[in-house]
């Protein structure tokens, strides 16, 4: 009974805390906000642009392929974006990445959400053959350009009290064979952005950062690259984009999607790393990887 007297109020208290800390999410929080989504000509980035568009944001999309971007802009407007525009840029050129932020400033007049999402540079599943160029290319496109965009956008984000949403991966949290250069870039992203988040907080600078830790998602490119090389089933890119945008708008420190399966692996990784190595290893079709 004595235990109950202590335990019960504790549980009730925790439940109440949980309930009141669950800020509710509404389109009003996003209407009229200015958003830049990188790598938004297809895939998850495209879906993230549509999510922001549905809630009436001013959306800017960027990637290399102009035709695709034009179609995305058109659809953003149909979905209800306050405005939509595109910027053509190759993010492997850091000067060009810097210019994207300058153009965003002249197009939107400021920035409330910087969504770092693009990915590329032959990062599919393949054997490690000691090719230094592949590693450099991946770090440059999938990590350095993120940092460059962040540096260039920092003033604008501080002026608006804006935030950053940055895409990571399970490959940025646990070892991932056959895609070492991609995994390395995502681990770098995790290190940089989680450190930046706390450094800003300690300096009393308001810059919320949401890191999205994603499992296997059914984008065209990922399916093409991975579907015959792994045994796993992919999750929905639309649902993924919804969760990422919600987590970003609510300023959560991280979004894990799909939640339970990935969270389970992350917890298990700390407790039983060897077992996780084996489990992860089993999900590859080795005979199809060269
Ligand atoms: N899909 C998954 O299973 C999965 C899993 C975990 C994490 N993620 C992460 O989620 C994010 C989106 O992934 P996704 O599957 O949606 O990718 P995706 O479908 O391959 O789209 C990648 C985007 O990046 C753009 N891009 C590629 N190279 C570029 C370059 N050099 N310069 C500028 N833009 C470039 C592409 O457009 P252009 O070709 O027109 O330039 C495209 O819009 C990535 O950060 C990825 O790491 C995905
Ligand atoms: C990088 O982009 C800048 C500005 O857009 C351009 O002047 C420069 O030639 C590009 N560099 C390369 C190597 O393509």
Automatic annotation (TrEMBL):
SUPFAM superfamilies: NAD(P)-binding Rossmann-fold domains. GO terms for molecular function: oxidoreductase activity. Belongs to the short-chain dehydrogenases/reductases (SDR) family. Residues 1-16 form the signal peptide. This is Hydroxysteroid 11-beta-dehydrogenase 1-like protein A. It comes from Eublepharis macularius. The keyword RNA-binding does not apply. InterPro entries: 11-beta-HSD, NAD(P)-bd_dom_sf, Sc_DH/Rdtase_CS, SDR_fam. Keywords: Oxidoreductase, Signal. It comes from the Eukaryota.
């Amino acid at each position: 009974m004595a235990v109950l007297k202590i335990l019960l109020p504790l549980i009730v208290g925790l439940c109440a805390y949980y309930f009141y800390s669950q800020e509710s999410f509404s389109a009003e929080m996003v209407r009229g906000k200015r958003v830049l989504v990188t790598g938004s000509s297809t895939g998850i980035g495209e879906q993230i642009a549509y999510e922001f568009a549905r809630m009436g944001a001013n959306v800017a999309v960027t990637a290399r392929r102009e035709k695709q971007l034009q179609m995305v802009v058109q659809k953003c407007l149909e979905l209800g974006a306050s405005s939509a525009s595109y910027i053509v840029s190759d993010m492997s050129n850091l000067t060009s990445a810097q210019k994207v932020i300058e153009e965003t400033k002249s197009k939107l007049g400021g920035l409330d959400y910087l969504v770092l999402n693009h990915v590329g540079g032959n990062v599919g599943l393949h054997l490690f053959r000691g090719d230094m160029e592949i590693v450099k290319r991946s770090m440059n496109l999938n990590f350095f350009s993120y940092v460059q965009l962040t540096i260039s956008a920092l003033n604008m984000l501080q002026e608006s009290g804006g935030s950053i949403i940055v895409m990571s991966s399970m490959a940025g949290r646990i070892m991932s064979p056959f895609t070492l250069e991609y995994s390395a870039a995502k681990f770098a992203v995790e290190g940089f952005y989680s450190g930046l988040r706390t450094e800003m907080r300690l300096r009393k600078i308001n810059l919320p950062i949401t890191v999205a830790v994603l499992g296997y998602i059914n984008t065209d490119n990922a399916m093409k690259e991975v579907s015959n090389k792994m045994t796993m089933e992919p999750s929905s890119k639309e649902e993924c984009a919804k969760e990422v945008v919600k987590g970003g708008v609510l300023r959560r420190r991280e979004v894990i999607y799909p939640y339970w399966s990935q969270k389970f692996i992350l917890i298990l990784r700390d407790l039983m790393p060897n077992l996780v190595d084996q489990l992860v290893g089993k999900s590859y079709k080795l005979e199809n990887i060269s």
